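In response to reviewer comment 3 from the previous cycle, which asked for concrete evidence that the modeling workflow produces usable outputs, we include below a single protein chain processed end to end. The sequence was submitted unchanged, and the resulting structure tokens are shown without manual editing.
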Amino acid sequence: MIEFEYAAPTQLDDAIKQLTAAGDGARVLAGGTDIIVQLREGLRSADLVIDVKKIPELTQLEFCGEQGLHLGASVSCRRIYDDENIAAAYPGLADAVRIIGGWQIQSRASVGGNLCNSSPAADAIPPLITYSAQAHIAGPTGRHVVPVEEFCTGPGRNVLQQGELLVALTLPPQPSGSGSAYQRFIPRNEMDIAVAGAAVWVQLDKRGERIERARIALSAVAPTPVFAAEASEWLSGQPASEEVFAKAGELAKRVATPIDDMRGTAEYRTHLVGVLTKRTLATACERART
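The workflow returned the following structure tokens.
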């Protein structure tokens, strides 16, 4: 690994100043499970690595049923699924963070880091999209908010500008009769990168028989995790049935633009979109009724 300077600021303003001063040579470390590997393998370079886990605002985790979830950018995956109330309110997110690496990695890896790494196959991003999560960003010119579905701009690229960093993610409160789920397909049983993934959020009517609203997001089948708008909109007003789930899966395929690589062909990935969308819809609807 090439040598670099290391900083661990305890104040957000200090981190922003250090990021700005170092320019393109700065890298942020939230958990380190991606950036350290990338630096070691020469996939990225750094003159300065800024560890932001000592900044209180970035490790803040707050949940209130009426206000939703505030998730600091450095909060570890384990803290999310270990909290029974959060896991029950946001089961799709809990599904995702439980399968990001092994349990040792989950104690370090963060949802914020998963988002900023901006991999097309990221597990945490599709559930965030389905929850209409917002990314709170701070930088030398102030703060602003970006919907997570607009955060990633390409493989490994996102909207963060020089000197900016992700501070927190906010997820809206979950209404009664809503449910969510995330599933991926991987070649091995664990600790692998998704060949394809699908996240679903649904809101059912009072009887639990009809879908009032839905959001579907996919991973590993486009240059970025992608929101399946047409399939999501079509589901509104449809009965919560296997036939409808299958049709939504076919519609979701239309936003898939996968590539062939060592983990699967484009054709296979497109097929998996239909399968995973159908399965996650069934699970999300089942959870919405409980």
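The chain has three domains: 5-51, 56-171, 178-288. We consider this sufficient to address the reviewer's concern, and the full set will be provided in the supplementary archive.
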